[in-house]
Amino acid sequence: MVEGEDPSEAFDRADLTGHHLNWAARALGTAIGQLRAGQPADTALAEADHHLRNTPFWAHLLRTVIAPAVYRSAMRSAAEGWLREADAFFGAAGERPLQHHVRQTLAAIGAKVPRTTASVPAHLVRFGITAREAEILQLVNAGLTNNDIAEQLFISNRTVETHISSMLAKTGAERRDQLPST
Known about the structure:
Oligomer: single chain
C-alpha cells in the first residue's frame, strides 16, 4: 500500500478486514498498556471500535480477550458489558465454544454468569438484564401498570416492583419511562 492511499481502495475485502484487525489489535494493545500505567485509554479504545465497526465477530472476540485487563482498571462496567454482549452474540450465532469462553471470562472477573440470554435483546444484555426482566420491560414499554403486569404474568405486585427497581439500577435510569425499549 502506498502512503496516504485509501485502504478501502488498496485492498480487497478480505485484505481490508485483515488491515482493520491489525490496526484494532494495535489500538487495543495500546489501551491495555495505558490502563496498566493508570492512564485513560478512551482514545485507543475508540480507535479500536472504529476499526472493528464492520466486524462484530472479531469485535466481540477481541474485547473478550482484553476484558479482564479492562475490568481490573477503572472500567469495570464497560468490560462486563462487553462480555455480556459477546455472550449474547456468540449464543445467537450458535458459537457455543466461544460463548463458553466468554462465560468463563465473566466468572473469572467475578461477574454473575447468566443462565441464558436467548430471550434478551442484545442491546439489553450489556446491562445484565435477565430474561424475566426483559419480559417485564416489554410490558412496561407497552404502558402497563405494575398491577397489570403482575396479573398478566401471574406474579405478585412486589415481584414486579423488585424487577423494575433492578432494571433501574442496572441501566442507571431514574424512572421507569427512562428505561430502554425492548
